Amino acid sequence: MADYHILEVGLAGDQARIVFHISVPNENNSAGVNLRTALRQFRSLSTKVPFIDQNEKDLIADGEIFELVESVTFDPELTNAQKNQIIKDRAIVLLQTFPDKIRSILEFWGFDGTAV
Question: Taking the CA of residue 36 as centre, how many other CA atoms within 13 Å lie in the half-sphere pointing to its CB?
Fold first, then answer.
């Protein structure tokens, strides 16, 4: 499975739209709901990448992988290798930090309570 897919590059060569695949932690939130289940309930899960294989599609549909779409901007004078390194560096940061954002967003998903 790929960590990211490049969907398109701007005509000027200074921007790329990328889908990053972030692993969703397999753990329960404060309400006792597994984060992958909570993600499936929270939003419709389908891929934005038309050219991925069925295995990746299944991981996304099952809530195991979260797709994050971002635009990355760079100096058009950079080489393709340099641009690719910028994208890889961004992927590394997201793979390390975004699971905590998922935890935060879904922390109380499924929690029920009463006022009295």
Answer: 14
